[in-house]
Write a structure and sequence with these properties.
It is built from five helices and no strands. By secondary structure, it is mainly α. Helix 1 crosses helix 4 and helix 2 packs across helix 5.
Length: 94
């Protein structure tokens, strides 16, 4: 298990910032992040959702996806529990 490197951390922080906003892209980013957090309760992620995101956001998603694929870590074990709790509250209030 590895901590995030500088590039991965920066990409994740940008995605978290996007997910905390209230735009259509924010919902897409939140869906992506929450599929990592808890797909059973928060839902999966349809890859075609990325078609509605700016290229910079998709690049950050790719970086985070690659990290998740290589490491057996959830975001709360990386120190992002509070951020993800905010995103869950905003986008999955039920």
């Amino acid at each position: 298990m590895a901590d995030l490197n500088e590039k991965e951390n920066a990409a994740l922080l940008r995605l978290i910032k996007h997910a905390k906003r209230g735009t259509g892209q924010s919902r897409r980013v939140a869906d992506f992040l929450l599929a990592w957090w808890n797909p059973a309760q928060c839902g999966g992620f349809d890859f075609t959702t990325m078609w509605g995101c700016d290229e910079e956001i998709v690049e950050d998603m790719i970086v985070v996806f690659a990290y998740v694929a290589r490491n057996n870590r959830y975001p709360d074990t990386l120190g992002f529990e509070a951020d993800f709790a905010v995103i869950v509250h905003e986008w999955r209030p039920q």
